[in-house]
Amino acid sequence: SDPSSSRRGAFIVFEGLDRCGKSTQVARLVDRLERESQKARLQKFPDRTTAIGKMIDAYLQSKAEMDDHAIHLLFSANRWECAAAIKRDLDRGITVIADRYAFSGIAFSAAKGLPFDFCLQPDRALPLPDLTLYMSLPQEEATQRSQFGEERYETVTMQQATRKQFRLVAEEVKKIHGGKKWMEVDARGTIEEVEERLKGLIGDLTDGVNGRVGELWV
Ligand code: NYM
Ligand code: MG
């Protein structure tokens, strides 16, 4: 029998601060996989298309105010409402590529001063990414990029505080899930240079992986 037939799709997450080039790289990866006739799907978080996502979108655009805890839980609820579809697609052999995930949820909310433990709990048992690629860019470079400052959280102070929290999130992932699940990538340089770095780290993950999808923080 063909052992590859039992493989599921890989769950790959891209993380980073605002304007680090994440969305560009995610789009290029999905394009490449489609050209190579591999099955892949992009999942953006927040997913602003759902009812919960519309509330999040209004908050991020400062069209609505919300308690810090309440918006934190909405971001998490937005992931939970997508969790079953992610699992289903992985089981069908589709590579699911997420533009942000629970790690942004913790880092941004903790940067506002919410307790780290509170931030972590609502996402417990969500599908565990097989690999998270954290794109790291010096703040001066992100600030210079177009559209920086458009949305809530896009201030230098907030980004620097979030950067510190992302370091704690990385430690937590490595402690609970092992060092291979989180990789930091230098996001400086041209789009092509960064793409090559990412491609090297992703390797043959997009050919599928063995074993069941894990649970986050479990
Ligand atoms: N964000 C994103 C959070 O604060 N919590 C979360 O759980 C997620 C997924 O939303 N500044 C923040 C990070 C971003 C903002 O994300 C919108 P994007 O990728 O710019 O659409
Ligand atoms: Mg943004």
How would you portray this structure in words?
The radius of gyration is 17 Å and the shape is globular. The mean pLDDT is 96. 37% of the residues are buried. The two termini are 33 Å apart. A five-stranded parallel beta sheet has the order 2-3-1-4-5, with helices on both faces. With 218 residues, the chain is α/β, with parallel strands linked by helices. It has helices at residues 22-35, 51-60, 68-91, 102-111, 116-120, 139-144, 156-177, 191-202; strands spanning 11-16, 40-44, 95-99, 131-136, 182-186. It is an enzyme of class 2 (transferase). Pathway: Pyrimidine metabolism; dTTP biosynthesis. One of its GO terms (biological process) is dTTP biosynthetic process. Residues 14-197 form the Thymidylate kinase-like domain.
